[in-house]
Amino acid sequence: MTIQKLFANFDNYLPLDEQERDDLSKRVVERRIKRRQFILQENDICRHYTFVAEGCFRKFQVDKKGVEHNLQFAAENDRPAARWIMEIDSFYAEKPSRVYIEAIEPSVILQISKPDLLHLFMHNPKFDRNFRVIIENRFVELENRVLQAISSTAEERYVTFLDQYPNLSQRLPNTQIASYLGITPEFLSKIRKEISKKQVNP
Amino acid sequence: MTIQKLFANFDNYLPLDEQERDDLSKRVVERRIKRRQFILQENDICRHYTFVAEGCFRKFQVDKKGVEHNLQFAAENDRPAARWIMEIDSFYAEKPSRVYIEAIEPSVILQISKPDLLHLFMHNPKFDRNFRVIIENRFVELENRVLQAISSTAEERYVTFLDQYPNLSQRLPNTQIASYLGITPEFLSKIRKEISKKQVNP
DNA sequence: AGCAACCCTTAAAGAAGGTTAAGAAATACC
DNA sequence: GGTATTTCTTAACCTTCTTTAAGGGTTGCT
Questions:
Q1: Strand D footprint at Cβ < 7 Å?
Q2: How many CB atoms lie within 10 A of CB A174?
Q3: Where are the alpha helices (DSSP H) in chain A?
Q4: Which of B143, B148, B152, B161 should be substituted to probe chain A, the one whose Cβ sees the most A Cβ atoms within 10 Å?
Q5: Which residues contact B16 (CB under 8 A, 6 or more apart)?
Q6: What integer pLDDT is reported at residue B202 of this predicted model?
Q7: Which nucleotides of C are covered by protein (CB under 7 A)?
Q8: Which terminal Cβ of chain A has fewer Cβ within 10 Å, N or C?
Q9: Cα A153 versus chain centre, distance
């Protein structure tokens, strides 16, 4: 069952006991999402924390020129903390979202609303702690990404991406990876050619 | 007194009552730090959460070529969440730090060790919640920075920095700002010239 | 006050990455 | 299973940013 995947996700942090699993499952809603469907659009308020049980999502922002920039991927079988997706700022402050969250594949998600999450936080510190650790892990990843962005060339960033997220590298189109790395698809194509040249001719 | 600045910092989140202030102050250590002094070096384990009461710090990583890359500034009078500085990964996992944290100005800090912080988390959920919110705020900032890095030119990033952190812009040397933006000091110099040209000649 | 260390700027050459356009290959969907 | 859409690649040209080198200005420290 889908909820088991959520329980298993918490096993990476402070595992939940029977009582806590029960509390959590009562406050979670399962949804099936089609490819290309949005679960959050710009100017909407982000009303849920979303856990990706199956499939894959991307979070992106659109600039003044209409170009999309991928901020995050969240996929099944990805690192535990990266299976959570939301706009945290919009969620807590209840202000309009600046990002979109879109399914890249047909997906199944579990969502928790803000009132339900706050209820869990209030009644059991373990939830507070678990979600703090999830954010902390995501924070570490983001800081690594900032470091990469300010210190490495596009080729280095791409190689690191392949190495760090082999799962994502295979299921995502290169256009989406390019957007995540902050380069054009054309330039990524050039990089890929360079890399394959190096591997044939060492 | 120095500790008052820490209490005031928490007033931005869930303010502490008398009892909680007392608990906190017993678990905090004040230190005076000279300019250029390190409070964390590469391969050391980060043993404290640090609150900047006076002065200014930078967190940076050194690449294989020996070039330094600034990941964070933490200064008095800066945004509340940005007055906390640590390497979260090293702190929780007790693994060697990959970053340095160095005082840019003579400073006064308040530090909490991991055992003390965990004690606070255990005995009062308000601390857990406050530190979760601090991390969440830092998370939002970091995501904005990633977006800037993948979507904007160096000039746009610099202008945003001036706008967003007027306080930091004035107290930091341009070399440090360039390192934070991910460009060379020479190119920042060129950008500054371009900008001043535009303002004289619209 | 004076010297060393740091900081800022300029400029020329070159590398990294973007833009435009167009065709070929793969994939989704009915 | 076939067509429309998306995706990937190539190449020529252009912009952004780095490298190297050098000179002048500030700042910190004792």
A1: A 173-176, 185-186, 188-190, 192-193; B 34-36, 153-155, 182-184, 186-187, 190-191
A2: 15
A3: 2-10, 18-26, 88-93, 114-123, 125-151, 154-164, 166-171, 174-181, 185-200
A4: B143
A5: B7, B10, B24, B126
A6: 44
A7: 6-12, 16-21, 28-29
A8: C
A9: 24
Q: Answer for the pair A63, A133: CB distance below 8 angstroms, yes or no.
A: no
Nearest to B149 among A129, A149, A179 (CB): A149
Q: Which backbone phi and psi does B15 adopt, to 5 degrees?
A: -60, 150
What confidence score (pLDDT) does residue A200 get?
57
**Residue at A1: amino acid letter:** M
B111 CA vs D30 C1’ separation (Å): 32
Q: Which residues does chain B have with pLDDT short of 50?
A: 202
Taking an 8 Å cut-off on Cβ atoms, the answer to whether A69 and B132 are in contact is no
Domain architecture of chain B: domains with CATH = 2-123 (2.60.120.10)
Chain A residues whose C-beta sits inside 8 Å of any chain B C-beta: 61, 63, 67, 69-71, 88-89, 92, 121, 125, 128-129, 131-132, 135-136, 138-140, 142-143, 145-147, 149-151, 179-182
Along the 202 residues of chain A, how does pLDDT read in single tens digits? 899 999 999 999 999 999 999 999 999 999 999 999 999 999 999 999 999 999 999 999 999 888 999 999 999 888 899 999 999 999 999 999 999 999 999 999 999 999 999 999 999 989 988 999 999 999 999 999 999 999 999 999 999 999 999 999 999 999 999 999 999 999 999 999 999 987 655 4
Phi, psi of B48 (to 5 degrees): -140, 150
Residues 6 or more apart in contact with residue B77 via CB below 8 angstroms: B167
A111 in Cβ contact with A49 (< 8 Å)? yes
Q: Work out the number of other CB atoms within 10 angstroms of the CB of residue B9.
A: 20
Distance CA A104, CA A177 (A): 12
Could you read off the pLDDT of A28-63 as tens digits, one per residue?
Answer: 999 999 999 999 999 999 999 999 999 999 999 999
Helical residues (DSSP H) of chain B, grouped into ranges:
2-10, 18-26, 88-93, 114-123, 125-151, 154-164, 166-171, 174-181, 185-200
Interhelix angle for A185-200 vs A154-164, to 10°? 80
Nearest chain B residue (CA) to A179: B150
